[in-house]
Amino acid sequence: xxxxxxxxxxxxxxxxxxxxKEVEGMDERAxxxxxxxxxxxxAALVVHTxxxxxxxxxxxxxxxxxxxxxxxxxATAASASELVARLDKADRYLDEMSAGxxxxxxxxxxxxxxxxxxxxxxxxxxxxxxxxxxxGHVQLTKQVYATRQAGLT
Length: 153
Prior knowledge:
Elements: H1 3-23, H2 28-32, H3 42-60, H4 69-72, H5 80-99, H6 103-107, E1 109-112, E2 115-119, H7 120-149
Antiparallel strand pairs: 1-2
Helix pairs in contact: 1-5, 1-7, 3-5, 3-7
């Protein structure tokens, strides 16, 4: 496997592990709570992050795929274990897809939705940053929820 692909794949798995740590022990109410209008719940953030990641992996490999991005933001979870199972599945998908990414895929210009084509490497690295950004959103949402439940706001 290409060193860049291996490195980015490992970094995605670090994000997945951190997301698991954040959601473990959370109940349904906490996972589906959002702090304000036009913000997202932890469940929606996790589902969206993984949907975006899967789309990018397919984009880099020039494989077809379907994604309902709007539905990701409406996603709910009945339990933390449901989200952990999604993260486990995403790890397996990451392994499967990463194994097929070549140096040519990284260099090739790839369209993604309505965005201008970029190299496969661009999509991988920018989407990893996207995943880290949403990890931060999950952490902040969890903190705000805990503060409100404690009556500190």
